[in-house]
């Protein structure tokens, strides 16, 4: 895994300037880093969290900057500068899909990005020319609860927005709703029975009828489905 860092030369230059002008006088935007990336298996629920890396308190000049995906070509342009002064040291920015925003436990995104903003298999996300966050095949969890953190660590998702609100989401709150119609019912039961037996091909809950991930559709999955009968939470 390679985590590119293009900010070194710019950072050194800026530190030099700060040394002359003082830290409060220099407004910029170079010390935001892509800190955490999360997606569910179909890309409808995604977030990208940025973090101010270095205690710089005036990193407000986001106008003209962007976050982009090299694989999908999607680009999110920040609509303007942050509307505050002396407000950025060690803070976070949260870019997320609207489906993420609707989940229980989700802090309000600072910016909305479209579903499928970045690729799940492998991608490099860029924050302008200042940072890049790269992951390869199999490195991004899509188990609905874990995310990929800077440095390659995976762990529970922890989205944090600029206001400092943080949380953790379960991106698969209703895994037994196999057909995605918002409730667990007879159609889901029939789908599960039709898939009865060893999993065919990939075995990645919750996108299959194998709800407990043991690669067999069986009695435990049936009991899980029956326990979740009715409207999704
Ligand atoms: Ca986080
Ligand atoms: Ca259903
Ligand atoms: Ca199973």
Describe this structure in words.
The chain is of the alpha+beta class and 233 residues long. The chain folds into 2 domains: 149 residues, Immunoglobulin-like, CATH 2.60.40; 49 residues, no CATH class. Helices cover 15% and strands 23% of the residues. The strands form 4 sheets. Strands 6-5-2-1-9-10 form a 6-stranded mixed β-sheet. It has a 4-stranded antiparallel β-sheet with strand order 4-3-7-8, with no helix packed on it. It has a two-stranded antiparallel ribbon with strand order 11-14. Helix 3 runs antiparallel to helix 4. The protein is elongated and about 65 Å long. The N terminus is likely disordered. The structure holds calcium ion (3 copies).
- What Rg do the Cα atoms give? 21 Å
**With helices defined by DSSP (H or I, 4 residues minimum), what is the helix count?**
4
Share of helical residues: 10-25%
Strand order of the largest sheet: 6-5-2-1-9-10
> Which class of secondary structure composition applies to the elements?
alpha+beta
């Amino acid at each position: 895994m390679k985590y590119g860092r293009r900010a070194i030369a710019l950072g050194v230059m800026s530190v030099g300037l700060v040394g002359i002008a003082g830290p409060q006088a220099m407004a910029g935007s170079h010390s935001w880093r892509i800190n955490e990336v999360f997606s569910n298996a179909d890309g409808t629920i995604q977030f990208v969290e940025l973090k101010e890396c270095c205690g710089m308190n005036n990193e407000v000049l986001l106008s003209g900057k962007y976050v982009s995906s090299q694989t999908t070509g999607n680009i999110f342009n920040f609509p303007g500068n942050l509307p505050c002064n002396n407000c950025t040291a060690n803070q976070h920015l949260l870019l997320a899909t609207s489906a993420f925003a609707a989940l229980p436990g989700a802090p309000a995104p600072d910016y909305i990005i479209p579903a499928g903003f970045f690729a799940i298999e492998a991608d490099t996300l860029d924050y302008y020319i200042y940072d890049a966050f790269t992951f390869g095949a199999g490195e991004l969890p899509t188990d609905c609860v874990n995310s990929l953190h800077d440095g390659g660590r995976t762990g529970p998702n922890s989205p944090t927005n600029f206001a400092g609100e943080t949380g953790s989401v379960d991106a698969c709150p209703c895994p037994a709703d196999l057909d995605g119609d918002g409730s667990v019912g007879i159609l889901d039961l029939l789908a599960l029975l039709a898939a009865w037996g060893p999993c065919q091909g990939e075995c990645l809950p919750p996108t299959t009828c194998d709800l407990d991930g043991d690669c067999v559709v069986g009695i435990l999955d049936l009991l899980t489905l029956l326990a979740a009968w009715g409207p999704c939470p």
